[in-house]
Amino acid sequence: MGAVSALTLLGLLLTARVALAAGALPSARLAPSAQVQARVQDPERLAPFGLMLDAGVPEGAGLSVSFRPRREVRLHLGATHNGIRGGARAGLTLLPLRGWVTPALTLELGHAQPADARSLERRMADRTLPPSPSFERVGYTYASALLGFEVQAPGNLTFFIRGGFSVMELYGPGMEKLDEPFRDALAPEEAKPWRLRSTRPTAKLGLLLSFG
Which of 62, 134, 184, 192 has CB 3.0 to 4.6 Å from 80, enough for a Cys bridge? Predict the structure, then answer.
């Protein structure tokens, strides 16, 4: 009787062990997917692409496409508009730390082409537009260095604010090709080509929508 009881107890123990092992298998199979889901929900997950909208000086409003090849580096390329004409801009941002709030160093290069003689003539001939030919014939190239911080919000949104300085070169081409009536409307010094280099403070704020 004792032997039968011992065998019965051993059978029950083995049955319980097999049942526990069978119950553990589904969770083991689900573990990788759970890890994938955890990675998807991780706020620190790298989203390599993005659309960046910002406003500041000297370039005005900007819309750029960004690419983040590494967690510490983000590249961007896009267009700007200063209220008079459009331009182009490229840059990189260094993000040395992780977290919801992180410092950022941004370096940028930008350029806006001045209006040519024909465009300026059309602009001066349109009496419905405000008289600002002097501003339209000014082009500029700039290099900026900015320090700031970024705040990551839910929904892959990042807000940023930056400040620093820009080295700018403003220039105006000669307007000798203007037709005489339009050339007479300019001051003598405005008709001559010129260049001016200066360093000035710069600041901007904006947001970035990341995806990918």
Answer: 62
Residues in Cβ contact with 172 at an 8 Å cutoff, skipping those fewer than 6 apart: 114, 137, 138, 139, 190, 193, 194
Same domain, 35 and 59: no
Instruction: Annotate 128-154 with b (16+ C-beta within 10 A) or e (fewer).
Output: eeeeebeebbbbbbbebebebebebee
Full domain range(s) for residue 99: 49-211
On whether the CB atoms of residues 197 and 167 are closer than 8 A, the answer is: yes
Q: What is the pTM of this model?
A: 0.67
User: Do 110 and 152 fall within a single domain?
Assistant: yes
Q: How many CB atoms lie within 10 A of CB 110?
A: 22
Of 92, 85, 90, the C-alpha closest to 69 is: 92
Q: What is the DSSP string of 94-137?
A: E--S-SSEEEEEEEEEEEEPPP-HHHHHHHHH-TTS-S-HHHHT
